[in-house]
Amino acid sequence: MVKFADRCRVCGLDFSRYNVGDGAAAFLILIITALVIGLAIIVQVLFAPPFLVQAAIWVPVTIALTFWGTRVAKAALLVSEHRRDAREGRLAPPDEP
Ligand SMILES: [Zn+2]
How far separated are the first and last CA of the chain, in Å rounded? Predict the structure, then answer.
């Protein structure tokens, strides 16, 4: 859904060597679902709007939160991988004498 550019526009860091994947998406969907349903229930209890009003509010909000959240979550995962120097599985280098 959201793909990284090949390189950072500022420093030229090669993003292709990081494997962020879709791991963030499943977790994000759980959070956004809980948030949107909770807010929709609160709006329903307080204002009792017609169904179409609820749909007109929450469908765009859900889409916007998903796109924004995916960008933030994937960027956070990439930062985390970069800081920990995460790579594909590899053997530990031999101990220095
Ligand atoms: Zn950069």
Answer: 47
